[in-house]
Design brief:
Two copies of one chain form a homodimer.
Chain A lengths: L2 H9 L3 H13 L4 H9 L6 E7 L5 H14 L4 E6 L3 H4 L4 H6 L9 E6 L8 H14 L4 E7 L3 H8 L3 E6 L7 H11 L2 E4 L7 H14 L10 E3 L8 H17 L2 H30 L2 H12 L5 H9 L5
Parallel strand pairs in A: 1-4, 1-5, 2-3, 2-4, 5-6, 6-7
Helix pairs in contact in A: 1-2, 1-3, 2-7, 4-11, 7-8, 11-12
């Protein structure tokens, strides 16, 4: 890979080089640090929106309509669809690769499914770096879309400035688990498929949870109803995003959120570097294998082993 | 906490002490290593079944019926319901705490929702240690139930001997993402709500995927249809679990799988110990804060910073 050419291509907004750059950070290619060093100073210009929710909640459809509206307003939009199952499948969400055919010839839209395997710093790190690439390429808005509410997805959403949680009425009991977590990550709650009968009930439940949630009185996540399939309510979502953006820029909050994002990224890179360069030198594969075998035979327990090994940290 | 008393209580199978022990490992209490050292040699006796799937797939209902059947066969059953959103909500799945009322007075059943925050080694580590506690307490079967298909949940399911992925017909496009990942983690695929019209289609799709999957010819994950709500097909699930257990014990595979579980656990503990004891001494809070602030102002980029810091590993 000719790093200089890729850098120039990204800065000029050329799709082909943007894709190469994102592949490089996604795969943790040896050129990735050099690339990111050069692109970093040109980053920071986009408003990053994270969208999460359960499978089938309609995130892709919502994203599709958001892109249409933003394009109508002349904004350049990048979309990253993160598939947390891909470390195992080795692929990415198939549907995403084809789903936005109508934007295919529009250079103001860039859509990318991300596998985020093998990246320094885990599944969210590749996403963060891909945002850096898209920002350097001059996109005004970046939408990160991911499935689920596990730690990975929460990390991914936390790389955004504005986080949206998409809920669907009548999804069953497990949704309680999601609802308990969303207040922590959602700057904006979307009830999609809001033409379903259980909508009012979900709305009431969310309002109650928001009333109970600890708040500094500064930002109460608005609840927006959509029927994304029919494009209904999308303008309300955009308005709520704009309001949150305005809120962030209205005082020091925006800066503090950015510092938090940076702290998170440094810590991730730092951990990853330690994992990769430091730890193997302190515990060899042979030692690990032998310990695992003794543990499997119940001849040794892991907790004493780790205590003994930890002493190496002080040498 | 009187560690000796808790240890004796767990070994005697007393519910109250089991709960205290699991709380200790869940919270990463200072007594946890001492507790686990003592319990470890009495562990390893249960068959651990992991159940995962999207929210609303019916995992809780399926688990409930499995517990009923296993109890009917005189087996003692422990259930761990892991809520991956809880690092943020600080709580656990509300419904689980109340859902199995009918087992409440049965000492042969132990049900526990786990938050797994703050545990050494991340979200799956607490689960692994809780299994150790339940095994030491003499449970014959342990069921780990979790939501979703992210890395956390896959790690959790990988602490099981037999992993079940629960699917539902007609759940929408994102389910493709799940399906791509499940072949890697599912020893057994359950189509729940199999009275829905799209059942045959999902069945065909799964069969095709299984045909395409790389296989050493040894174990092809069976596809079992259930209507968990009505208790239909649960006996088939139990039979498939038994068949997989038999398969594991029929040659060296069971032992190798156990070694893999142990290797995973040691590596997790080792990483966690490094994070906790080693890394802070190499990067102070003040350094991190100052770096994050410069990065937020785009005065510094993180990749050079990490390169410089990594040199400390060689000192």
């Amino acid at each position: 890979m000719d790093v200089q050419r890729v850098i120039e291509g990204v800065l000029a907004g050329r799709t082909r080089q943007i894709s190469r750059a994102i592949s490089a950070v996604e795969d943790g290619a040896p050129q990735a640090p050099e690339l990111l060093k050069a692109l970093f100073e040109r980053s920071g210009g986009a408003h990053v929106v994270g969208i999460t929710g359960a499978p089938g909640a309609g995130k892709s459809t919502l994203t599709d309509h958001l892109v249409l509206l933003l394009r109508g307003a002349g904004r350049r939009v990048g979309v990253l669809a993160v598939d947390p199952t891909s470390p195992f499948s080795g692929g990415a969400i198939l549907g995403d690769r084809v789903r936005m055919d109508r934007h295919f010839t529009d250079p103001g839209v860039y859509i990318r499914s991300m596998a985020t395997r093998g990246t320094l710093g885990g599944v969210s790190a590749g996403t963060y770096d891909a945002v850096t690439v898209l920002e350097a390429a001059g996109f005004d808005e970046v939408i990160i879309e991911t499935v689920g509410v596990g730690q990975d997805e929460i990390d991914i959403v936390n790389t955004a400035h504005t986080s949206i949680v998409v809920l669907v009425p009548g999804m069953g009991d497990d949704v309680q688990a999601i609802k308990a977590g969303i207040l922590e990550i959602g700057d904006l709650l979307v009830i999609n498929k809001a033409d379903r009968p259980q909508t009012a009930r979900l709305e009431t439940e969310l309002a109650m949870m928001l009333d109970l949630a600890p708040s500094d009185g500064a930002w109460r996540p608005p609840v927006v109803k959509t029927v994304a399939r029919d494009g209904e309510g999308i303008d309300d979502v955009l308005e709520a995003i704009a309001a949150h953006r305005q809120f962030l820029s209205s005082d020091e909050r925006g800066y503090l959120k950015e510092v938090e994002r940076c702290r998170h990224r440094i810590r991730e890179l730092w951990k990853a570097a330690a994992m990769e360069r430091l730890l193997p030198s302190l515990l060899s594969d042979e030692e690990l294998e032998s310990a695992a075998e003794r543990m499997a035979r119940r001849q040794a327990e892991p907790y004493s082993l780790i205590e003994k090994l930890s002493k190496r940290f002080n040498s």
